[in-house]
Amino acid sequence: MAVAWLIWPLMLSLTAHFANSLTEAESLLKFKESLTNTKPLDSWTLDSDPCGGTQRWFGLLCKEHSVFGLKIEQMGLTGNIDVSPLIDLPGLRTISIINNSFTGKIPEFNRLTSLKSIYLSNNRFSGDIPSDYFTPMGKLKKVWLSNNEFSGHIPISLATTLPKLRELHLENNQFNGIIPNFTQRNLVHVNLSNNRLTGEIPPGLSKFKASNFAGNPGLCGAKLAATCTQPGISTASISIDGDMKDDYKSKYYISFGTLGFLFILIIILFFYLKRRKMMQRASEQDNDDDDQEIQVSKAISLVSMLKNI
Ligand SMILES: *[C@@H]1O[C@H](CO)[C@@H](O)[C@H](O)[C@H]1NC(C)=O
Ligand SMILES: *[C@@H]1O[C@H](CO)[C@@H](O)[C@H](O)[C@H]1NC(C)=O
Ligand SMILES: *[C@@H]1O[C@H](CO)[C@@H](O)[C@H](O)[C@H]1NC(C)=O
Question: What pTM does this model have?
Fold first, then answer.
């Protein structure tokens, strides 16, 4: 009897658990609902087993009859990816949606905290990635975001919260700002080329060749054609320094321009005033002449008046 009282709550919670959790097939189909152009995923149906021996669903990687990876590449897929059904796939470790037509902000893949690799390359994802986006994804080894339209700063969490990072591909995006100081020892592949990055290549990445940073006109460093203006100080202050230099430069140009304009104005004013003075003097002389004439004529009339008396 006492045992039954102990077991009963356990039984209740177990049934609740099974009632709430979807099978892998149900989860994957719910995920598929958020996609469009899913013709290539026609093999995904409820009456089959996703990791079934003979007819495994297309685009799945399986391990011990459980979904290990999602590899739905080059299918022309679009849509607003709903990540939440994938949380119910306990074995999911890798996702690749390379070469599709996804647009908009980066989906909430960071809710999948067990992922070891994520490949989003060759889509049209855009916008900023929140700086702490990768913080919950401490197991990531491979991050491929290349050939999209991502903008804003490189998320700092890539550099500070992923101790196992091995591959980082951010090339052909529109990332700007300075490069964080990546310090992961295992980082063996990095490509940051063709972005809008500025400042110095940080010490943590100095082992990589210049070609991994090509196509960022604002970058400087020993490896690159552009030398940094003040070597030896941190990247952040170089960038700020650089900005300030530009600022000063434009201010100088503006003040020189203003000075030149004022100078010309003063010269014009000077000549104008001089000319006006000359004309005034001339007319004053005329007035003097008139006065003299008047005085002369007065004198004459006075003489004639005197004569008449
Ligand atoms: C992506 O598409 C390009 C060009 O069509 C092709 O060269 C490349 O192999 C594709 N990559 C993948 C992983 O499908
Ligand atoms: C960057 O990381 C390296 C270790 O790889 C460290 O020695 C250096 O002090 C760091 N530099 C800055 C500016 O944080
Ligand atoms: C980095 O990416 C650029 C652009 O796709 C490519 O041209 C270059 O070869 C890549 N560099 C390395 C070292 O992979």
Answer: 0.71
